[in-house]
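Weekly sync, protein design subgroup
Attendees: M.S., D.O., the rotation student, P.L. (late)

Item 1: inverse folding check
M.S. brought a backbone from last month's batch and wanted to see whether the design step gives back something sensible before we order anything. D.O. pointed out we never logged the input encoding, so this time it goes straight into the notes. C-alpha cells as presented (313 positions):
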C-alpha cells in the first residue's frame, strides 16, 4: 500500500466518468481525485476547471490525468497533457486515426512520464483463463457475438454516429481488445461488411471474418439494433475442447460449467495498473485493437440500412 496517494485529474465528466471513473478513483488506494475538467459539470471534493488550458494553468501540483472524453476532442487534451509532462491515461478508442495514435506515442516517448492506452475489457476476470486455454491449442472456430441496444449504452450521443467515432465499433473494439490479448496466433480482418443507417456517417452493425493462416473459421457480428440484454460473448472451438468467454470476459462457460464469479471490476483494475506503470516508470501503448478496426473500415463493403433515431422513452 503506497504511503501517499497520487493526485489525479479527470477530464470529461460524461457517462463513463460518472458510472466508472469517479467511483473507481474515490475507492482507490493509489489515487486522489484532485481535479475535474468539464465544460458543464462539477465534481465534489475536487477543484473544477472548464478546460485543459485552465487546468494546466491552475494546478501545476497534479502529476497525472485521465481523459474520459470521446476520441475527437480528446486528442487535443492528450497532446497538451503529454507535452506538460503529466502521466496520461486515455479511454478507448485511443484516437480517431492511427496517425494520431502514433503521434501521441511519439510525443510521450520524449517525456519521462507514463502514457497508458487503456482497454477496459482486457481487465475482465476470465481473460487470463481464456488465454491459458488457447495457449498451444489448435483453434478450429471462433465466433464473436457483440450485440447491445445503442439507446441503452449511448443515449442521445450523436457524436458516436459521426465519422471518426467508430459507430458500432465503439463497443466492437472491446471485442478486438480481448481477441488481440488472448489469441495464441494473431489473426487479421480478412472480410468486412458494414451497415450504415441512412443519413449517418458510422455503421450501426458489422459482419467480419478473420484469418490467421491456418484455415480456422473466425467471424464477428457486431450489432447495435439489439433488443434485450446485451451479449458480449466469444465462442471458441479447439482441439482441446470448446468454451465461451461471456459478458466481455467476465466468466467462462465450458462443459456445462461456469468458471469465474462474473464480477466486473475493470476500472478499479485499470487505475491500479496505471499506478503500477507510474511507479515503475513504464508506459503501455498497444494499438492493435485499433489496427483491427481500421482494417475493418479499409476492407469494408458499405450497405445502407434503415435510418436510425434515438428511442424516446
Ligand atoms: P459522453 O458521455 O458523450 O462524453 C463524455 C464527456 O466528454 C462529455 O460529457 C463532455 O464532458 C466531454 N466532451 C464531449 N465533447 C467534448 C468536446 N468537444 N470538448 C470537450 N469535452 C467534450 O461519452 P462517454 O460515453 O462517457 O464516452 C467517453 C469515452 O469513453 C469514449 O471514448 C467511449 O468509447 C469510452 N467508453 C464509454 C463507455 C460507455 O458505456 N459510455 C464505456 C467504456 C468506455 P463535459 O460535459 O464534462 O465537458
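Designed sequence read out in the meeting:
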Amino acid at each position: 500500500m503506497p504511503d501517499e496517494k497520487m493526485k489525479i485529474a479527470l477530464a470529461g465528466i460524461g457517462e463513463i466518468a460518472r458510472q466508472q471513473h469517479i467511483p473507481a478513483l474515490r475507492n482507490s488506494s493509489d489515487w486522489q481525485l484532485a481535479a475535474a475538467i468539464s465544460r458543464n459539470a462539477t465534481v465534489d471534493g475536487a477543484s473544477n476547471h472548464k478546460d485543459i488550458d485552465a487546468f494546466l494553468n491552475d494546478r501545476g501540483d497534479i502529476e497525472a490525468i485521465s481523459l474520459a472524453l470521446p476520441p475527437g476532442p480528446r486528442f487535443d487534451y492528450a497532446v497538451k497533457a503529454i507535452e506538460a509532462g503529466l502521466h496520461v491515461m486515455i479511454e478507448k478508442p485511443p484516437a480517431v486515426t492511427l496517425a494520431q495514435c502514433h503521434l501521441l506515442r511519439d510525443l510521450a516517448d520524449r517525456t519521462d512520464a507514463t502514457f497508458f492506452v487503456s482497454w477496459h475489457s482486457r481487465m475482465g476476470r476470465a481473460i487470463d483463463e481464456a488465454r491459458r486455454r488457447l495457449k498451444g491449442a489448435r483453434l478450429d472456430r471462433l465466433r464473436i457475438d457483440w450485440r447491445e441496444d445503442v439507446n441503452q449504452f449511448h443515449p442521445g450521443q450523436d457524436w458516436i454516429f459521426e465519422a471518426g467515432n467508430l459507430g458500432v465499433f465503439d463497443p466492437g473494439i472491446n471485442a478486438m481488445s480481448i481477441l488481440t490479448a488472448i489469441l495464441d496466433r494473431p489473426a487479421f480482418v480478412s472480410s468486412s461488411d458494414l451497415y450504415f443507417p441512412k443519413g449517418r456517417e458510422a455503421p450501426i452493425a458489422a459482419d467480419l471474418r478473420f484469418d490467421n493462416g491456418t484455415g480456422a473459421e473466425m467471424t464477428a457480428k457486431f450489432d447495435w439494433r439489439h433488443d434485450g440484454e446485451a451479449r458480449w460473448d466469444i465462442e471458441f472451438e479447439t482441439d482441446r475442447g470448446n468454451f465461451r468467454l461471456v459478458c466481455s470476459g467476465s466468466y467462462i462457460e465450458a462443459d456445462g460449467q461456469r468458471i469465474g464469479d462474473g464480477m466486473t471490476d475493470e476500472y478499479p483494475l485499470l487505475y491500479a495498473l496505471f499506478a503500477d506503470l507510474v511507479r515503475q516508470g513504464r508506459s503501455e501503448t498497444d494499438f492493435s485493437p485499433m489496427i483491427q478496426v481500421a482494417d475493418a473500415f479499409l476492407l469494408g463493403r458499405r450497405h445502407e440500412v434503415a435510418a436510425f433515431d434515438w428511442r424516446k422513452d
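Discussion: The radius of gyration is 20 Å. The pocket of NAP is lined by residues 12-17, 38-41, 68-71, 73, 91-92, 120, 153, 157, 170 (CB under 6 Å).
Action: P.L. to compare against the previous round before Friday.
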